[in-house]
């Protein structure tokens, strides 16, 4: 009869353990994704800043290109004006030469011809001055165009460098994501290995007691082993059992690397029978929380660092069994210990 009862108990607890293992795997995956998203956000901020620089460089290049086109148009206009001035100057000089020949031959009105020659000489001098000023402006425009070309070349070099750094950043993001996933997966595997070692040592220490079970990745202690009915203070038997657990945790904790952020989570659970509400503890929420806190305080007394411990109360809202029987309620009244990530 006893063998059959133990067999039924193990068969009942198999499925919750499987579900808890899947839940742990899901939490680990969510943690990996959260860290990866955070890393991508930080790197995306850096890339966003580089995109702003690239946009600013492109805008400056566009402005300088427009200015260069305008300067080239001005230069062409001046060159056309110079060509017109040179044509006019050539025509004026030809006219002056003709008048000088007429004046030398004596076949014209000397006074009128000399007056016309003076006017032509003045016009030629003015046209030469205008032409010289236009040439000076063309030279200045040539210098400005050369300077603009140098600025555009410098900006294009800067743009190429920024685009190269952007490509390098994208490569770094992909590489960081891969390395981050590998590193986090290694940390999860390491913690799982230490969790298995911890559970193995607890099995040895507790001597394979039938009333202390493993459900998924947690050790489950019936509340009756640790506390008096309705009480939240560890009894003598409970202190003895938790002392064994504390010693095993101190031993395994000294072996876990410092860069693995681990905690022992102590979860308190009750059955679904409400308390009277007239005692020191008012309801099942407070009872489950007080019991978990009592276990945590005992571990602290044994020398386990407080930052490696977490106490949580779940009341009657996370039952192992849903049946409305005394046996199911007894299984639901429990303390669970879980070695997990912070």
Overview of this protein structure:
The longest helix has 104 residues, at 2-105. The model is unreliable at 1-19 (pLDDT under 50). 73% of the residues lie in helices and 8% in strands. The protein has a five-stranded mixed sheet. With 342 residues, it is of the alpha+beta class. The relative contact order is 0.10.
CATH architect. name of the largest domain: 2-Layer Sandwich
Tell me the distance between the termini: 43 Å
Number of strands: 5
Number of helices: 6
What count of domains describes the coordinates?
Answer: 2
User: Which structural class matches the secondary elements?
Assistant: alpha+beta
Give the topology string: H per helix, E per strand.
HHEEHHEHEHE
Descriptive terms for the model:
342 residues, alpha+beta, 60s Ribosomal Protein L30, Chain: A, Helix Hairpins, five-stranded mixed β-sheet
In short:
This protein is of the alpha+beta class and 342 residues long. The protein has helices at 2-105, 110-206, 223-226, 236-253, 284-301, 326-332; strands at 213-215, 218-222, 262-269, 309-313, 334-341.
């Amino acid at each position: 009869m006893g063998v059959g009862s133990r067999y039924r108990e193990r068969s009942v607890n198999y499925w919750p353990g499987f579900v808890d293992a899947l839940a742990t795997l899901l939490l680990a995956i969510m943690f990996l994704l959260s860290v990866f998203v955070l890393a991508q956000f930080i790197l995306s901020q850096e890339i966003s800043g580089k995109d702003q620089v690239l946009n600013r460089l492109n805008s400056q290049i566009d402005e300088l290109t427009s200015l260069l086109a305008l300067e080239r148009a001005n230069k062409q206009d001046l060159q056309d004006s110079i060509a017109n001035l040179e044509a006019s100057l050539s025509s004026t000089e030809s006219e002056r030469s003709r008048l000088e020949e007429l004046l030398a031959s004596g076949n014209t009105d000397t006074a009128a011809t000399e007056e016309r020659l003076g006017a032509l000489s003045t016009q030629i001098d003015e046209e030469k001055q205008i032409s010289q000023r236009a040439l000076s402006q063309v030279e200045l425009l040539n210098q400005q165009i050369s300077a603009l070309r140098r600025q555009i070349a410098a900006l294009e070099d800067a743009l190429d460098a920024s685009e190269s750094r952007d490509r390098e950043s994208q490569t770094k993001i992909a590489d960081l994501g891969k390395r981050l996933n590998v590193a986090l997966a290694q940390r999860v595997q390491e913690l799982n290995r230490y969790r298995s070692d911890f559970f193995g040592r607890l099995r040895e220490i507790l001597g394979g007691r039938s009333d202390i079970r493993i459900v998924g990745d947690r050790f489950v202690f019936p509340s009756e082993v640790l506390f008096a009915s309705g009480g939240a203070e560890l009894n003598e038997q409970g202190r003895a059992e938790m002392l064994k657990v504390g010693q095993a945790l101190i031993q395994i904790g000294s072996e876990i690397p410092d860069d693995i952020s681990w905690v022992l989570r102590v979860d308190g659970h009750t059955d679904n029978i409400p308390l009277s509400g007239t005692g020191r503890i008012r309801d099942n929420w407070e009872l489950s929380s007080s019991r978990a806190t009592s276990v945590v305080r005992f571990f602290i007394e044994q020398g386990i660092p407080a930052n490696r411990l977490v106490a949580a109360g779940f009341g009657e809202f996370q039952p192992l069994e849903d049946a409305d029987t005394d046996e199911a309620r007894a299984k639901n009244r429990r303390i669970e210990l879980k070695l997990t990530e912070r």
